[in-house]
Amino acid sequence: MKKCIFLLFTLVLVNCKQTKYKNPHVMLSTSYGEAEIELFPENAPQTVAAFLSYVDSGFYKNSSFYRLLSNENVPPENNTGL
Question: Residue 49, SS3?
């Protein structure tokens, strides 16, 4: 019986490993929830490397981000299209 429990426990531990991704992933945590971001180093190797170095250094810890709109992206007050 002990061998069966040990075997079952071992199988559970072996199968409970983290998912391996081809590309690096970063978790963005906000007060509204979390978002997992996938990075594509084959498309932008220098940008991904720079971003990951900032993440690893703790640059983004407890920081804020804002959505900025230029004048072209702000919806007009008159929605009639005139």
Answer: helix
Please state, in angstroms and rounded to a whole number, the distance separating the CA atoms of residues 23 and 25.
6
Secondary structure class of 20 (helix, strand, coil):
coil
> Which of 19, 3, 23 is closest to 11 using CA atoms?
3
Residue pair 40/23 in contact by the 8 Å Cβ criterion:
yes
With CA atoms as reference, report the closest residue to 61 among 37, 26, 36, 32: 26
pLDDT digits (tens, 9 = 90+) for 14-59: 556 566 789 999 998 888 889 899 999 999 999 999 999 999 999 9
CA-based R_g, the chain, Å? 23
The verdict on pTM exceeding 0.90 is no
Tokens of 77: 């007050």
